[in-house]
Amino acid sequence: DSGVTQTPKHLITATGQRVTLRCSPRSGDLSVYWYQQSLDQGLQFLIQYYNGEERAKGNILERFSAQQFPDLHSELNLSSLELGDSALYFCASSARTGSNEQFFGPGTRLTVL
Amino acid sequence: AQKVTQAQTEISVVEKEDVTLDCVYETRDTTYYLFWYKQPPSGELVFLIRRNSFDEQNEISGRYSWNFQKSTSSFNFTITASQVVDSAVYFCALSVFQGAQKLVFGQGTRLTINP
């Protein structure tokens, strides 16, 4: 158990819908990262937050957004969902920016029908 | 830009054999970190090791060992006396020190250990 929690574990929805994925980092970790794992793209970095502020953006679509709240939990919002958004979405946390190891949550498997 | 290549898509061996997973990376940064993660069938990503670019000492942890060679930009992972529980997808990843400390992952190597 990494100490990072993600909810829900599974999510099945329809095209055009909007969903919210939630992540709680390890106790004391200020940095949260979101990654997408799909069959065709592999594991890709989406976005990073540090202590409530956006720190870095990767290959995140404009239909996707995220935020980190004062209690340090983070949410990833995916809207106007398409079939190709079906993937495993991971959240990771680390104690600070810098290359401390990132500890990953169990992931949320999103299926768009 | 950074890149990680794991040329071996799938490896299948018989239990108790030794197996090496290859990882080659590209970066122009002089300070960087290399990682290995394990993804068992249950799906979570399990951290195995982190090395920084200034430490080329090989590391051994039980049946696991890692060989870091800057001259060839490689960070290979060897499992000695493999076990069925080692069956998983293994990812090599790279993170640079400056800027976004995102992890850049290789495509992964699916390792199957047959009894």
Reconstruct the topology from this structure.
The complex is a heterodimer of chains A (113) and B (115).
Chain A lengths: L4 E3 L2 E4 L5 E6 L6 E8 L3 E9 L2 E5 L6 E5 L5 E5 L8 E8 L8 E2 L3 E5 L1
Parallel strand pairs in A: 2-11
Antiparallel strand pairs in A: 1-3, 3-8, 4-5, 4-9, 5-6, 7-8, 9-10, 9-11
Chain B lengths: L2 E3 L4 E5 L4 E3 L2 E3 L5 E8 L6 E7 L6 E3 L2 E6 L4 E6 L8 E9 L7 E2 L3 E6 L1
Parallel strand pairs in B: 2-12
Antiparallel strand pairs in B: 1-4, 3-9, 5-6, 5-10, 7-8, 8-9, 10-11, 10-12
Notable features of this structure?
heterodimer, A: mainly beta, seven-stranded mixed beta sheet, four-stranded antiparallel beta sheet, globular, B: 115 residues, mainly beta, six-stranded mixed beta sheet, 12 strands
Task: Provide a descriptive summary of the structure in words.
The complex is a heterodimer of chains A (113) and B (115). In chain A, the strands form 2 sheets. In chain A, strands 2, 4, 5, 6, 9, 10 and 11 form a 7-stranded mixed β-sheet that branches. A 4-stranded antiparallel β-sheet of chain A has the order 1-3-8-7, with no helix packed on it. Chain A contains no helices and 11 strands. With 113 residues, chain A is mainly β. The model of chain A has no long low-confidence stretch (mean pLDDT 93). Chain A has strands at 5-7, 10-13, 19-24, 31-38, 42-50, 53-57, 64-68, 74-78, 87-94, 103-104, 108-112. The termini of chain A are far apart. Chain B has 115 residues and is mostly beta strands. Chain B has no helices and 12 strands. In chain B, strands 2, 5, 6, 10, 11 and 12 form a 6-stranded mixed β-sheet that branches. In chain B, a hairpin with a 4-residue loop joins strand 8 and strand 9. Chain B starts with a strand and ends with a strand. The mean pLDDT of chain B is 93. The interface between A and B is medium-sized, with 27 and 25 residues.
